[in-house]
Amino acid sequence: MKYKAIYFDFDGTIANTAPGIIATMTETFRRLEVPIPSEQDMRATIGLLLIDALKQLGNLSDEMAQKALETYQSLFKEIELKITKLFPEVPETLKNIHSLGLRFAVVTSRGLESLQLILSNNGLWNLFETCTTRNDKLTPKPAPDMVLTLLKRMNLNAKDVLVIGDTTYDIEMGNSAGCDTCAVTYGNHTIKQLMSAKPKFVINKFSDLINIIK
């Protein structure tokens, strides 16, 4: 096998979090009495740091953005966690590839607590050796810092790792870090957007990842 490890984006790649994120954002803006953005605009910000997405969508001041973040976090378990589902074939595909000896990590803009809750609820948390999240306070995607941190932490070279994600932020991040990249077309960015970031591979369903690995 060419690769020793796979770094997975989470939102839009492993889990279909968009419906839950959009519903939670909608309720957040409603409670703050801020005009509710379109679903398309909210979906386009998935992959950014949550506070940056809320600030951008609501044209909020720093103070209001912090209040929006706190409101969203208070609604997470009530709304987003209940709605979020894994994409088809994710559990069996992850277990299949992991059994081949590949190492897994998650590279995500979401916080560690919510990531761990969703993966644990689906029995997958123990498959992942480590992760970089919002809690690491690294320069966010599309900067390469989150991937570079994982490479150092896992003692791997960039050529040993495949970075997979559903947005241009993920692909640009992986490319900038010197890794091969794989875009999934079922997530939050269009094929046209994804191709502009020049991924090495493109797959239409999660289980197609096996063909790349083998």
Describe, in plain words, how this protein is organized in 3D.
With 214 residues, this protein is α/β, with parallel strands linked by helices. Helix content is 45%, strand content 14%. It has 11 helices and 8 strands. A 6-stranded parallel beta sheet has the order 5-4-1-6-7-8, with helices on one face. Strands 2-3 form a two-stranded antiparallel ribbon. Helix 1 crosses helix 4 and helix 3 crosses helix 4.
Task: Compile the SSE list and pairings.
Layout: E1 5-8, E2 15-16, H1 18-31, H2 39-44, H3 50-58, H4 62-75, H5 80-83, E3 85-86, H6 90-98, E4 103-107, H7 112-121, E5 130-132, H8 145-154, E6 161-165, H9 168-176, E7 180-184, H10 191-196, E8 201-203, H11 209-213
Parallel strand pairs: 1-4, 1-6, 4-5, 6-7, 7-8
Antiparallel strand pairs: 2-3
User: For the report, how would you describe the main beta sheet?
Assistant: 6 strands, parallel
Portion in helices: 40-55%
Structural class: alpha/beta
Distance between the termini: 6 Å
The CATH superfamily of the largest domain is HAD superfamily/HAD-like
Number of separate helices: 11
Query: Could you state the order of secondary-structure elements as H and E?
Result: EEHHHHHEHEHEHEHEHEH
The name CATH uses for the topology of the largest domain is Rossmann fold
Number of strands: 8
Low-confidence stretches: none
Assign the CATH class of the largest domain.
Alpha Beta
Morphology call: globular
Mean pLDDT: 95
CATH architecture title of the largest domain: 3-Layer(aba) Sandwich
Overall number of structural domains: 2
Identify the strand order in the major beta sheet. Answer: 5-4-1-6-7-8
Radius of gyration equals: 17 Å
Percentage of β-strand residues:
5-15%
